[in-house]
Specification:
This protein is an alpha/beta fold and 409 residues long. 43% of the residues lie in helices and 16% in strands. The structure holds 5'-O-(N-(L-cysteinyl)-sulfamoyl)adenosine (5CA) and zinc ion.
Length: 409
Amino acid sequence: MHAWPASEVPALPGKGRDLRIHDTATGGRVTLAPGPVARIYVCGITPYDATHMGHAATYNAFDLVQRVWLDTKRQVHYVQNVTDVDDPLLERAIRDGIDWVGLAERETALFREDMTALRMLPPQHYIGAVEAIPGIVPLVERLRDSGAAYELEGDIYFSVDADPHFGQVSNYTTELMRHLSAERGGDPERPGKKNPLDPMLWMAAREGEPSWDGASLGAGRPGWHIECVAIALDHLGMGFDVQGGGSDLIFPHHEMGASHAQALTGEFPMAKAYVHAGMVGLDGEKMSKSRGNLVFVSRLRRDGVDPAAIRLALLSHHYRADWEWTDQVLQDAVERLGRWRAAVSRPDGPSADALVEELREALSDDLDAPAALVAVDRWAALQEAEGGTDDSAPGLVSRAVDALLGVAL
Ligand code: 5CA
Ligand code: ZN
């Protein structure tokens, strides 16, 4: 699948700092020093509805990860999937009486537009679940042949007990895992499973649903977790730097994905850091396609909201925090954008060398975007109050805000 066009990332003088980021698996900070090429996998959308502010906030977090790495003069190898076949997509297509392929294509196209408008850097490999199926089938066969997977009435399940490290991404209790498994697409109550938590790897063809040739597995379609693992291993290999997504993916998705990969390769861990963004809510509830309490990026754009203001609204919250989208959050961002644009539109101003270092320090410190915004606010306030004589400062601020925060002034 094609991704979306890249906005240019201006090079800044000097060099950024290594990223220290919170890792869900260990519960602590890890310093990622990935050598000349950093490798990141970020879970993509299930395209049955438009991009909402929760999605945008999560992709914003992983965009910052890349901007910090690029500023350290590393290359970034970025992979993202599109879950273009799955239960919620098929259910929505039936509900709306439309073709599921067309629905997925339409919503993926809109996502690309939103990502482009928000200046999110595109992945080098943007891979749909459907196009990954030929790579998924042999992995499921391997897991089955090695005893890490088993058949139940034609469906193939992964045996979580096959991975000695199972549980080490979320560190959740078995009780919580069971609860989340039932809530997030698993089937802990299905009789005949070796362990109630075992997730499906391959679902045998169901009447009226799309299916693909699964060689020795029979016709069917892939489970959700193996989709991301197949794509990540194919394009990044084991031991990549960051596995990213929202905190609702900690369990089962990232836990199961890590176990699939570890059982397949015998290597541990799949990723050096499991990084999770907080949930964005609206009116006290998690914003979600299934709940329908959504503020869409595309809707705001259509209403004439500057995408740079949307991006500033996202950046004003720490990526790990759960927060609420309100009109005030957007209003504050619009005003801030106005102040910053006025400050950089003058021919000179106070020196910005220290500001660039403050931005670097804030972002390398577990992506502290709110602290970065405050630092720019301070420079803009000084510019407004006193001005300055450095004629390179406004340009440098513009480039730094663009390169490190993805905001075009
Ligand atoms: N296709 C799968 C991942 S392989 C999926 O979860 N798709 S999604 O469309 O439901 O979500 C896309 C990304 O947005 C995921 O990382 C998810 O964790 C994140 N996300 C979903 N809702 C929110 C929310 N309310 N706040 C923050 N992030 C969210
Ligand atoms: Zn995923």
